[in-house]
Amino acid sequence: ASSQLPVHALSSASDKYPKPQGVAFTYGTAGFRTKGDTLESTLSRIGILAVLRSKKLNGQTIGVMITASHNPAIDNGAKLVDPRGEMLDASWEHYATLLANAETTSELLKVLTGLIPELKIDWTKPSRVVFGRDTRPSGEALVKALKAGLEAMGCDAPMDMGITTTPCLHYMVKGSNLKQEAQIKYGVPSEQGYVQKLATAFTKLMKGKTPASPLIVDCANGVGAVALAKLAPLISDILPIRLLCTNTSDASALNHSCGADYVKTNQKPPPAVQEVMEKGQRACSLDGDADRVVYYYLNPDDGKFRLLDGDKIATLAAGFIGDLVKQAGLSDTLKIGVVQTAYANGSSTQYLQHNGLPVRCVPTGVKHLHHAAERYNIGVYFEANGHGTVLFSEETIDILNAHEPRSPGQETATQHLLCLVDLINQAVGDAISDFLMVEVILAHKRWGPVEWDQGYEDLPNRLVKVNVKNRFAFKTQDAERRLVEPKGLQERVDAIVNKFEKGRSFVRPSGTEDCVRVYAEASTRVGADELAAQVATLVSDFSNGDLF
Ligand code: G16
Hints:
The chain is α/β, with parallel strands linked by helices. The chain has four domains: 2-185, Alpha-D-Glucose-1,6-Bisphosphate, Chain A, domain 3, CATH 3.40.120; 192-307, 3-Layer(aba) Sandwich (Alpha-D-Glucose-1,6-Bisphosphate, Chain A, domain 3), CATH 3.40.120.10; 310-453, Alpha-D-Glucose-1,6-Bisphosphate, Chain A, domain 3 (3-Layer(aba) Sandwich); 461-544, TATA-Binding Protein (2-Layer Sandwich). Helices cover 43% and strands 18% of the residues. The radius of gyration is 23 Å and the shape is globular. The two termini are 46 Å apart. 52% of the residues are buried. The mean pLDDT is 96. 1,6-di-O-phosphono-alpha-D-glucopyranose is lined by residues 29-30, 69-70, 287, 291-292, 364-366, 383, 385, 387, 510-513, 517.
């Protein structure tokens, strides 16, 4: 079959987008991510791989999202989306890395000639690829490079969604691969269909509830602002939204002093929000591609900043959905589980366990959480940084549809659960869908942020970045909670941790930035800061010495 490889077209596309020398690309936590202007060759090769993936899967639609999400505006990145809207199957990440790193056109052709029989690609199959990008300036050139790869491979149906959010792209991919009947239920696979689906489900769930007080949404000066400009007017009677940080025309503003990562890392509101926020009012911050969200408010008594992060969203969602399952009379049938990462605050894990919910810890990265959550009837997964969603398995949806309620209460709870399936993005974490879910829960419970916050008290924590010579020298195990390399370092981390009451700390290499991350928590603010600082110094000393 390799003889059918369009060698001529591939050669000219590859010559047009030569690989920069001396750069090694890796498909990491969230696909490829690095400086935007070095990624053109990688995008042309992603185009090639997307066509192969689609052919391999019988012509199903594959997605490509061009974004560097929470990272600065000069960065960019790309990730592939599999047919059900989930992240690319991990076994193919290796092929992505292999293609991206082929140094020359002839090497690229050689890799491809080997891959086609290895992957048993049937060249006669069709290929469909849908792609989108965030607001980063480098996105335009990267789309061109991607298209060149797609065209060279003779992609049958390339579809350009233009500037869009990551979750909307995932929604599109999932919807495009459904059979007609299922698609009618799911929603039209288009940006309009996505916005409409969310607005309809939200309106149904809010029926009879008092309209909420205004919510401030910080859009991180990213693409979330574009999507929300379309959605907000459709629901403004039920939820007035005040959009802040919506400047998408100035590239340098993206994620700068705003956005979910800023709030989580600095543990304070962005200046633009601080300026207008009143005590007791709730606000949330999205990130650059609108796939994560964190909430916060200022304490009505003392005006202190209080963060309601991914852990708080997970506990809120798991508690509410658990109650609905009980009210529907299905608690013996439907099992709920929660998936977290090592970054989850120790208090949140303890709280969930006390409430009888099974909790699993997996490595950082949506792909790991998503797969673990799929093992439950209802899997709630959130990273502390605000990435996450709630998955209802196909079997669960069938059970809910077939359920014959014995009382009006059971009927209402079942209908609410089915509406939640529509409101909550089933393909990937989605900041907009997530904050609408939070708003529904708060309205149903008649809670403000203060009541939501009362479940448990976060242990003070600190996350710091350490610049090291070679982050790949850091290897972890036990869901990234322990270092196995550099040898001897973990023992020294342990020795420091033991000095702090309720101390916990871990060290892991970032998959999206060139640094090592140190997380620490302890019983006091001073303790958490001190623990983080001591472990960070240790890591930095290790890196600067000649101990590797
Ligand atoms: C990406 C991943 C997240 C991860 C974050 C930080 O987020 O999708 O799962 O938590 O990077 O990862 P790391 O610590 O490995 O750099 P985003 O919002 O940038 O797509």
